[in-house]
Design goal:
307 residues; alpha/beta; Arc Repressor Mutant, subunit A; D-Maltodextrin-Binding Protein, domain 2; 3 domains; two-stranded antiparallel sheet; 11 strands; 42% helix
Length: 307
């Protein structure tokens, strides 16, 4: 039995999709499916019901998931205890979604450092689902991502509780003309194809934007001119007038105020999101006693003072 089989199984249980799980594990879907089959053969009983859409864990799968998570956690913790981490730097491994790295992360770290002295962070950045894989596989200690019921993410809050760090909106923007008005309007999406700056469909923001567009009563028409999982890239392309991009409002606030960008649609084309910090109690205790509770207290203080 290979530890990768356990990690594969945990990712599949979180994402409920062989396709997305294989992409998250950077293997082909056929290779991923074979590894899940190998795990089931080793266990001696089916763990996944493949006849349902999306695939669901069997009763045995649900029972095995907690055991698998614990085995993976213990193995990774043992590696840490034996000095697997670099002796030159052993900071808290914080995985941050691309969309939060520049406009939110620096302020949050500055706030935390004002209340908790001596913290060091080893920062990893990537797509939201990569972060979920890292958290479930104990390859990071904390996970900072956007969250919305529109695109539910499979996180067991009993094992990985969360703190709400803030609130934001994802809004459609494009280049502004000389009068500060949008050069593309979503109200025209039924009349002509509008250029779209898109996210890959398997990403968190890709699923979020697809949901916003798909459930519009007007059936809009778009022509995808560029695609990237990096919101900052789409922001730059939008500023040059290449199309409409859905971006976090906090990221583009300065551009909107300076009239480099303008809103391409009203509130019906936007959606509220939360900024959340996830952690495993076991991982937090391994790094520093009471860390999670201290982070919660620091965040509550921030909310109390309205910062």
């Amino acid at each position: 039995m290979d530890i990768e089989w356990l990690e594969d199984f945990l990712v599949l249980s979180d994402l409920s999709s062989f396709t997305r799980a294989a992409q998250a594990r950077n293997v082909t879907q056929s290779a991923f499916s074979r590894r899940i089959r190998s795990l089931e053969e080793w266990i001696g009983i089916p763990l996944v019901d493949r006849d349902t859409v999306p695939p669901r864990l069997t009763m045995a799968g649900h029972l095995f998931r907690d055991a698998a998570r614990e085995m993976v956690r213990q193995l990774h913790d043992t590696r840490i205890a034996l000095g697997h981490r670099s002796k030159a730097f052993s900071g808290i491994k914080l995985f941050v979604a691309y969309s939060l790295t520049q406009h939110f992360l620096p302020q949050w770290i500055d706030h935390v450092n004002q209340h908790i002295s001596g913290l060091k962070f080893e920062i990893l950045a990537g797509e939201t689902y990569d972060g979920l894989v890292a958290l479930s596989g104990s390859r990071c200690d904390l996970l900072m991502v956007y969250h919305t019921p529109v695109v539910p993410i499979a996180v067991d809050e009993r094992a990985c509780p969360s703190i709400i760090l803030g609130n934001d909106r994802v809004v459609p923007v494009c280049k502004a003309n000389e009068d500060g008005e949008a050069i593309y309007l979503l109200s025209e999406a039924r009349v002509r194809n509008l250029p779209l700056l898109a996210y890959p469909p398997e990403t968190f923001f890709g699923r979020l934007c697809n949901g916003l567009i798909r459930f519009r009563p007007s059936d809009p028409y778009f022509n995808v001119v560029a695609q990237s999982p990096h919101p900052r890239i789409l922001q730059s392309l939008a500023c040059t007038g290449l199309g409409i991009a859905w971006l976090p409002e906090s990221m583009v606030r300065d551009d909107l105020q300076a009239r480099r960008l303008a809103l391409a649609g009203g509130s019906e084309w936007s959606t509220a999101v939360e900024i959340r910090l996830y952690a495993s109690h076991e991982r937090s205790r391994l790094l520093q006693a009471g860390l999670w509770e201290t982070l919660k207290e620091a965040q509550e203080l921030r909310m109390d003072v309205g910062t």
